[in-house]
Amino acid sequence: MKYAKITGWGKAIPPASISNDELSNIVDTNDEWISTRTGIKSRRVSHVSTAELATYASKQALACAGLKGTDIDLVLLATCTPSTMVANTASLVQKNIGAIGAAACDTNAACSGFLYALQNATAQIQAGMIKRAVVVAAERMTWYVNWAKRDSAVLFGDGAGAVILEASDEPCGLLGTKTGCDSEDRGILHISNYGTDLSRYEPAGPSDLAFEGREIFKRAVTGMSVACDDVLAQANLSLSDIDVLVPHQANLRIIQAIQKKLDIADDKVMVNIDKYGNTSAATIAIALCEAVEQGLIKPHANIMSAAFGAGLTWAASYIKWGERVTPVAQCEETLPACEQTGMELIASAVKACQQ
Question: How far apart are CA 279 and CA 309, in angstroms?
């Protein structure tokens, strides 16, 4: 049997940020209100496109694995904020990293997108269809934000993360997974004024992001917990076997609730929501990279990950890490310099939302 070993990892973090105190100049809020309810202290705002974020994260991951773009058979991009719908954004990432002839596809499962994409690429490697894949999650969630709505304006940020999967005889990579969707309640988290259901001749205005926080909290905790239990049973693991929890970074309270249900100690949980906010599909990809960088993920670690997103999609995954936790090489490229602050980047959007 073939396995899909993670051999490279990389991230793209936009340099411009917006603090909670800065947000208080836009909506009726303050640092204490945001911090106590979400755990978020700051979020990043991208000055480049989703495709550029995905490209940079992918190049980082390729260098980490010691590979070139021409070695890749598949570029799978998880995003709900694509740069373009037609052609798909993954095709531009494929072009940018030089993955000549590789298959390229976007997948949208919102915040669960990275785990959905990881499952898809792993299955193709296990089936012998491909040998190497880039699985990248990239989002510009601030593009959707209605800066006049406090409940959602404080939550979201931009960023990208990527991993390289390679066919291997070593039993590692994604070894257990459960994905699903609770579509009966999809209305509690959605953007209603976007897509081809709208009249193409009428202006849509600022994004109307519906977000019922209390209902989402309940369903997220339940959905991710049940999925994690299913994955543990698949892998014949107990809770004590889990070395690291890398959850979706949507809300610190949700993370803590999942942690409590799984009975996992604080020093085994990767949390970075305070720095980046909710970057949707990118949260787990970025958190996975940082867990390796910070030494939380060690050789042969047992990793549990879970996510919940619009749809209402949910996913849980058991990942077995390999031996290597250091990059083969470093990517010399960087994101383009940003000449504006986070507040300057969103100024025109804020003005439009407040009219």
Answer: 11
